[in-house]
Design a protein that fits this description.
InterPro entries: DUF5317 (IPR035168). It comes from Tissierella simiarum. A two-stranded parallel sheet has the order 1-2. It folds into 2 domains: about 130 residues, no CATH class; about 50 residues, no CATH class. The chain contains 9 helices and 4 strands, in the order H-H-H-H-H-E-H-H-E-E-E-H-H. Helix 1 packs parallel to helix 8 and helix 2 crosses helix 3. It is mostly helical and about 200 residues long. The longest helix is centred in the first third of the chain and has 20 residues. Strand 3 and strand 4 form a beta hairpin.
Length: about 200
Amino acid sequence: MLIETLTLSLLIGKLRGGKIRNLEWLNIKGWYLFVISFILEMISLLIVSRSNGKLSGIIENNFFYIHIIVYLFLILGLSMNIREKGLLITLLGSILNFIPLLGNEGRMPVSIKGLKSSHLYEQLTLLEEGKILTHTLSHKGTKLYYLSDIIPISRPYPFPKIISIGDLLIAIGLFVLIQYYMTNNSRRGKMITISYGGK
């Protein structure tokens, strides 16, 4: 959903007369925390999906801790930037996604009913077979069910999926951030004023 959110945000920003180059004024503190978070999760998933060795087994058995660390880096990074427009909303969404992970062995529960209503049968099969490391099927014992992936987005949407309340907030926050920078020239004006203030 992240790529879709970013693409839509940029498109709407352009339609509103905004400029993509304005995003260069966005100064993300602790950007390396997001990079570490992304790399840690991607490497873990790649190793598990492409090998059956000892390392793969260690990652699977300890993925709860790995996923928690990934989210802690993400939440810490967002916390360092909450003064940026929209990122407080994104932080709240990330926390709401983090909470059900804590209660469900480090994996985000996914609604079976939602998967079926969106005709995501392939994903349902993969989850039944335990082949998606980051997610698990919801059941009667699922904790914090209403914070899980329970919101179906079906066709005619071109990329049907199941999302959570946290996902929605993350998308809204990023949308607000991008719109603010693309359509706001005040920061650039201030930089020019400072640069040429002595003339």
